[in-house]
Amino acid sequence: MAEIVGVLGVTHNPLMWASLRDTVPPDLAEVAANFERLRSQVAGLRPDVIVMVASDHFHMLTMANMPAFLIGKAPEMRAGHPNEKRVFGLEATMVPGDPGLGAHILGGSDLASGFDFSFSDEPWIDHSFLVPLLLLTPELDIPVVPVFSNCNAPPIPVAARFAALGSYLAEAIASFPSARRVLLVGSGHLAHELGGPRQFLGESPDPDFDEKAVSWMAGGDLQGAVASTSFLRLTEAGNESYQFLNFIACLAATGGRQAVMAEGTPTRFGNLPFFSWDMT
Amino acid sequence: MSRYLVNKLMWEVDRSDEALARFKEDPAAFLHDWESLAERPVPPYPDGGHLTDIERAALGTRDYGALYAMGANPFLLWQFARSVSVPEEMSIEKLISSFREAVAPYGYPDFHT
């Protein structure tokens, strides 16, 4: 039987990633240290597969065809898109997948889960998946089951739905008949804005939200998190803050455990999220 | 306003180096071709799949404030702005400050499509 051996929630900010590539600038030292800490944690957990909840940024999915939640099930998938190379220097690559686990999460032969996921046999992941993978597992040698959530094109699923997603993922993984050590990773933001009046402020657009968000994770307060993250409240935190919802899925997957690591690390890009749950 | 069409155009310009080069070279010609050729959604969207005069003007002159106020998707708008304006037209620092100035009066417009 498969088991979740660890749950993480991290930033995927591509500008942060680009800034860390060569030498670590002083203001990102803490971020680099956090990723190093999580990288050795991941190595110690020896995962066979990574199930990752992240939000495509109009690379694979557009308003022409926008699913709320989509599971990628392919033995191998493309990662990185041409405009990400042009803007961030993110090189396109290939990432291994786990179609068996992906199909199982989808619901088997008859979409029996009740979750009614969309699926893709040709997922093409973007920086929301690739940046955390490069920072947590630089060899990109661990198969990935991408779970795409729509956090960029409203209407966006409500927070309770992300909580249900997390609980469902935990159940589905636990019922997979083959042995797998599964690492669950959520990718997202705290308060974050792009393309609005508060982008690139050099600090968080909503420190109060960040403080509460970290406390929900540290305290295992799933109910508080769900109750306080409506579309409007998240917009107040910044027009890209909807991706915080991916962390609610992580919290729910743990059954509402207290995170052993929960912080919004202050940087020029705002407070960057780092969450980790001990599943032993 | 057809937010869908404006978003689609901005997305298509940003995602391909070739489209971006054509847009930068001659925005008006790009918009004309885009509206006349196969990139338009089929079946057509409101207004026969055409941009309105206001949308066409805002895209052609890179009027980011107007596009933002119309409810263009902020993420796609920023991607588009950075790709078409930097570095030829202005530095990234200049774009960040002028973009902020342009969108600030409009707060947070609805951007559902």
What layout of secondary structure does this protein have?
The complex is a heterodimer of chains A (280) and B (113).
Chain A: E1 2-11, H1 14-20, H2 29-45, E2 49-54, E3 69-72, E4 76-79, H3 82-88, E5 93-96, H4 99-106, E6 118-120, E7 124-125, H5 127-136, E8 144-149, H6 159-174, E9 180-188, H7 207-219, H8 222-227, H9 231-237, H10 245-253, E10 261-267, E11 270-278
Parallel strand pairs in A: 1-9, 2-8, 2-9, 3-6, 4-7
Antiparallel strand pairs in A: 1-11, 3-8, 4-5, 10-11
Chain B: H1 3-15, H2 17-25, H3 27-36, H4 53-60, H5 64-70, H6 74-85, H7 92-103
Helix pairs in contact in B: 1-2, 1-6, 2-3, 5-7
The average pLDDT score of chain B comes to 91
Strand tally of chain B is: 0
Quaternary structure classification: heterodimer
Q: Please indicate the count of domains of chain A.
A: 1
CATH class division of chain A: Alpha Beta
Unreliable stretches of chain A: none
Coarse shape of chain A:
globular
Largest sheet of chain B: none
Approximate helicity band of chain B: 55-70%
Percent strand of chain B: under 5%
Strand order of the largest sheet of chain A: 6-3-8-2-9-1-11-10
Strand content of chain A: 15-25%
Sheet having the most strands of chain A: 8 strands, mixed
Class of secondary structure makeup of chain B: mainly alpha
Radius of gyration of chain B: 13 Å
